Amino acid sequence: MLGCAPRFFHKDPKLVDAYLKPFSSQARRNKEVLEIWNVMNNISMTLNYIESCFSFNKELLPSYRRKVPWNIKKNYLDGVRISREKIQDTIKEVERILPKYMEQDQIKEILETRFEGVSWLNDQWEKIINESKLL
C-alpha cells in the first residue's frame, strides 16, 4: 500500500519521482503501471527542467545588463546543451521501456507531442544565441 499521496502530488514531478521510485521494485502486482508512470513522469521532469532553465536565465537579464560577472551566452548555451541531453536521455528511456506496453505509433506520438516543438525551439535559441553580437 502506497499510503496517502502528498498534497499537490500531480503538480510536481520531482515529488512524484521521490515518492514512487522506491515502490517500483516492491510492487507485487501491476508493476507495469508504476513503470509507465515513472517514464511519463520523467518526461514531465525533463520539460519542467527546460522551462525553469530558460526562465532562470531570463530573470538574470538585469544582472547581465549591469555587467555583473555572469556570462549570459555561456549560461544560455549550457541550457541549450543540457536541455538537448535531457531530451535525448528521456527519449532513450521511453524507447527502452514503453514498447513493452504500447504500439510504436503511440510511442511516436508521445515523443512528437512532448519533444518535437521544444527541441525545435531549443535549436532556434542556439542559433540566435550563437549569431548574436550583443551577448
Q: What is this structure, in a nutshell?
A:
With 135 residues, the chain is mainly α. The protein is 74% helix and 0% strand.
Task: Walk me through what this model shows.
The structure is a single chain. The N and C termini lie far apart (53 Å). The chain is elongated. The longest helix has 29 residues, at 31-59. With 135 residues, the chain is mainly alpha-helical. It has five helices and no strands. The chain has helices at residues 13-24, 31-59, 61-65, 72-97, 104-131. Helix 1 packs antiparallel against helix 2 (31-59). It has one domain (12-48, 58-131).
- Roughly how many Å apart are the termini? 53 Å
Q: Main sheet, how many strands, which sense, barrel? A: none
Helix content: over 70%
* Separate helix tally: 5
Q: Please give the number of β-strands.
A: 0
The low-confidence runs, each spanning 5 or more residues with pLDDT under 50, are none
Provide the gyration radius in Å. Answer: 18 Å
Structural class: mainly alpha
The secondary-structure element order is: HHHHH
Outline type: elongated
Query: What percentage of amino acids are in beta strands?
Result: under 5%
Summed up, the domain count is 1
Rounded average pLDDT: 83
